[in-house]
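Our consortium's second objective concerns turning raw sequence data into structural hypotheses that experimental partners can test. To show how far this objective has progressed, the report includes one record in full. It was chosen at random from the queue rather than selected for favorable results. The single chain below, 134 residues long, was entered without modification.
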Amino acid sequence: MSDRAELTRSAIERWNSGVRGIEEFAPYIAPDFELESPLSIVAGEPYRGVAGLQTWLRDVDEQFSEWRIAVEEVREVGDGVLTVSTVRARGRASGVALEFGSAAVARFSDDGLIARLRIYADVAEALAALGLEH
């Protein structure tokens, strides 16, 4: 497995261990980091930089009491890494358990850090964005 795929797996492992502090994730991201997720649709724009990641972490924590990522596949595709997973979450206010497929595409800076991360609620959409079929 490549360094980029390993970095991606390592970040997910930290997430699943319950870590939510920005200091734990900042070493993985480039200074010009951008994150697009279903939550950024509500915000109307991507989360940017360390401050943006911190806001995203807070937003997830405010909405969900649990959020685990069960990785099904991590592979390099072109200049990025595709992660296909199942997310198991629980709404903080409702207590409703959720389980859904998800995919993420990470693109990297020249120094090997995550520069762009796009999280898709639809795996087929992520594959199409990479020019792949489901």
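The partners drew two points from this record. The radius of gyration is 14 Å. The chain has a mean pLDDT of 89. Both points have been shared with the crystallography group to help prioritize constructs.
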